[in-house]
Each structure stands twice: as structure tokens, then as C-alpha cells.
Amino acid sequence: MMVRWLVRRVLAIVPTLFGVSIIGFFLMRQVPGDPATALLGFEASSDAVSALQARLHVDQSWPVQYFAWIASLLQGDFGRSLQTGRPVGEMLAQSFAPTALLAVSALGVSLAFAIPAGVVAATHPRSAADRLLTLIGIVAQSMPAFWLGVLLILGLSVGLHILPSSGYISPVVSLWGCAMHLISPMLTLAAGLAAANMRTVRSAVRQVLSADFMRTAKAKGLSRAAIVWHHGLGNAAMPIVTVISLQFGQLLSGVVVAETLFDWPGIGKLVVEAVFARDYPVVEAVVLCTAAVFVAIGLATDALYAAVDPRVRLP
Description:
By secondary structure, this protein is an all-alpha fold. Helices cover 77% and strands 0% of the residues. α5 runs antiparallel to α11, α5 crosses α14 and α7 (145-159) crosses α8 (175-209).
């Protein structure tokens, strides 16, 4: 039963990614301008632009370009960048590691704050601590990421000279240098995540604390810490895991602001540069890979649900 359910879900991924490829391909063509003009400039002659369009194969009809791209994609070839001529797969591989490092770090920091803060708020409803944490969460969630990033640059880099304002150092080269460059963009992303996760934890734990089995645990004489952290947080974990899994997919695709602001060489910065350069293969590959990450994370979350609760596997 579990294998049949999993096979059905995997097969459903194919039309999803196919639809995403169509939307991403044709929407990118709606952006004004073309790669030849972006490379040569607006002052280039029409003959030069036409010649470069023919060399880049962007003078063909859109359906021809799409099916040629799909044919290459099915062979494991993402094509080459129209701007640099480099293989797109190689560019994605180089950009994925910095983005994954930033996303995982931001999510980890947000959870380190959100879980204990959410539990405290849930176990002390309407208290001063609950009101203060709720206020902090509202402020953090309402704060635009670009504004917080600028404040961090002005305060920690320009004002106090504690952290570098931009750039990236691989952890292989220098672990300390990587950490110093990571802090500001990580905090920029983690602030909003921490607020949202804290509210999710608070709501889930509050709901579990009112359940009958929690009253049974109290009647057995278990300590308050065991009741809250083991029984309460453990039984509230599934909705929290669902939100976190969706957030991780959003992080991988939503780091554009932080990476652009802090010159972080990840997927977000790559796709912004590709859009401005009308570098179609790079943008299309990023869109498709981002969709694949979302689908994979959703499938893993559903599989976890199905393993825990057999009712999820029912048609």
C-alpha cells in the first residue's frame, strides 16, 4: 500500500514539472528585450543584433526553442548561458552550495529562537512574556528583509566595523571568514522566519496542551517539563514540521533580496543577473530546479505523514 501510494505521488510530479517548464519558458519571453540587445547594448545596429540572435538561436519561434530546450533537458543538459557561454548545470552547482548554506543557517537560527519562545508563550498565555514575544514576532514578521539588511549593514559594518558588509568566503577556504560573512544575510532571512515559526509553535503547543492525554499525563504525576517538552511538543511536531518544510523550499527560492544586498553568490543573485541579461537558459533552469525542490520537499513531508498516519495513504 505504501509503495503504491508513493509511486502515484512520484508519477504526479512529472506533469507538475512539465507545466512549470512551460510557464517559466514562455513567461521569460514576455520580458521586454532580448539576449542579443542585452549583450550588444541599445546602440548596436539591427544587423549586428540579428546576427547575434541567429548565433544564439533566439530568432526561432518559441515552440521550436521550447522543444529544443526540453530535448536537451531530457538528456541531462541544461544548455549554456547566453551571456557567458558556460554550462548552466555547472553554474547552478556552484551557486547551490552558498544558497543552501544560507538557507539552512537561517532556518536553524530561526528554530533555535522560535521553539523555546513558542513553548514559553504557549505555556504562559496572556502573561507578560507571551505579550512581549508576540509583539517581537509581529515586529520581526512585518519588517521588510531589504530594510533589515540595510540596517545591519549600516549598524554592524559601517558603524561598528564588526562584520563585512558583503561578499562570500567558502568554508573550505576559511571557516571563520565564512561565518563572519554569513551572519548578516543569515539574520536578514532568519528574523521573519523566527517570528512565523514562533507563532506556529505557540498555536500547535496550545492546541495539544488542552487535549485529554495531557490531562492524563498530569494525573500520572509527570513533571511539567516532561509534559510540555516531551508529550506536548512531540505531539505538536507534525504541523510544525510541515511549516518548516515549506519554509525551506521558500528559502531556497526566496533568498534573492539577501543575496543581492550582500553580494552572496547564490541562486538568488544568479537569477537576478540572468533576468537583467535576458539569459533565458539560466532563468529557466533555476525556475525548474526550484520547482523540483519544492515538489521533493512536499513529497518527503507527505511520505513522513503517510508513514506516521496510514489514513493519509487512503485514496
